[in-house]
Amino acid sequence: xxxxxxxxxxxxxxxxxxxxxxxxxxxxxxxxxxxxxxxxxxxxxxxxxxxxxxxxxxxxxxxxxxxxxxxxxxxxxxxxxxxxxxxxxxxxxxxxxxxxxxxxxxxxxxxxxxxxxxxxxxxxxxxxxx
Length: 130
Description:
Layout: H1 11-29, H2 36-59, H3 62-88, H4 94-120
């Protein structure tokens, strides 16, 4: 893996952003948008996925980054559960659920792989470099 200078270049962050964009489409174009409490939870969960990746990257240390990637993975699982709630309440269609659900699955897998990679890496982070 080449050295990445900006969090915006991380594929895992890009996927988190795609999830936020697709969720926003659902909020604007389905009955889900009228369920303010659920919308608030889902918006925060989806935003937390990409924000924690960025924050962990910005900490410039391997261990802290892995911790924040773990927070992102938890937020992704939380959003996935909330999608089930929206589906069960018939606020989104099965197709809409499936599309975002697959992205959540993919993002969780990518996060898990990235955490495993960083766990095996000898590199401890930019802030420890002399």
